[in-house]
Amino acid sequence: MAMETLELPCGYKLPVLAYGTGTVWMKSEGDGIDRATVDAIKEAIDLGYRHLDGAQCITPVFPSSLCRKSTNSVEQDYETEPELGLAIEESKVPRAEFFVTTKAVSPIDVEGALVTSLKKLRMEYVDLYLIHEPFSSGGSEEVLQEAWRGMERCREKGLARSIGVSNFLIPHLESILKVATVKPSVNQIECHPYLQRSELREYMKRQGIITEAFAPLTPITKASPGPIDTLCGDLARKYSVSNSAILLRWIIDQGIVVITTSGQRKRLMEYLGQLSEFKLSNEEILRISQLGREKNYRAFFVDGFGKDCFL
């Protein structure tokens, strides 16, 4: 299937559906190659996924806040960059066909961190480099601004073709925009009907910053039962697709890039195949949004966002 794309401010095409190599493939140790992860990424590539989203690791500044339900293994990392790079290499698909994202573990020394990431990824550049979260700055505007200067240096040196942020709220964006000579291309945020981020998304639209959504299936994977369940089921039957496809389409049809993941080949095929078969009407998008506002639920970085948890 020919995947829909959005154009970044720098001119590069961004596929609207990405395969995420994050939370499903977390490792508790960074050493060694995990073949199951490599094979899972290769399978996604074989099915046609070309937008691959990765990260250096989860920042342990707020270990209990990374997700709603804490575990004893609070210092688990993604640490999947070696697997992502090896999977691309073994796939024999030319590097130029991929759009690869990775994220800085913290706002400190983002350039040095990217040099290390590129070695793990076996690449000379990434297509998109993000500051993973703003919380490691401790609320310091100066730290975020210096981090953004480092991101711009990464772009100038060709280490990253485009740069952006993740999990940023409006005040965080305002801080870096004060010094930016290049605006963030994207802000990757948790977004779904129970966490719609409307004010933030409108602000980013005015600034020309593309929204990327992670955890898009939260309403059915973590927050069910809920007010959209019946409508999603009705729409799934109407279009002969899965409930997951309805939620993914709700995001894509609003001009948002969506990041999803699965270890199941059937689901990955379903996402690619079903999303090309239908689009939601404006009325259906609005109805999902209206019902979604009846419930608030954040799955990730609950403590990090604090009082702004549901913004």
Automatic annotation (TrEMBL):
Q: Name one Pfam family in it.
A: Aldo_ket_red
Report the superkingdom from the record.
Eukaryota
Its family remark reads:
Belongs to the aldo/keto reductase family.
Q: Which residues form the NADP-dependent oxidoreductase domain?
A: 31-217
The record's annotation in SUPFAM superfamilies points to: NAD(P)-linked oxidoreductase
Q: Which CDD domains match?
A: AKR_AKR3C2-3
Name used for this protein in its record = NADP-dependent oxidoreductase domain-containing protein
Which PROSITE patterns does the UniProt entry name for this protein? ALDOKETO_REDUCTASE_2 (PS00062)
Q: Which residues bind substrate?
A: 132
Keyword tRNA processing appears in the UniProt entry:
no
Keyword annotations from UniProtKB, A to Z: NADP, Oxidoreductase
User: In the record, what lineage is assigned to the organism producing the protein?
Assistant: Eukaryota, Fungi, Dikarya, Ascomycota, Pezizomycotina
The GO terms this record gives for MF are: oxidoreductase activity, acting on NAD(P)H as acceptor; oxidoreductase activity, acting on the CH-OH group of donors, NAD or NADP as acceptor
Q: Which residues form the active site?
A: 78 (proton donor)
| Sites marked Lowers pKa of active site Tyr | 103
Q: Which Gene3D superfamilies match?
A: NADP-dependent oxidoreductase domain (3.20.20.100)
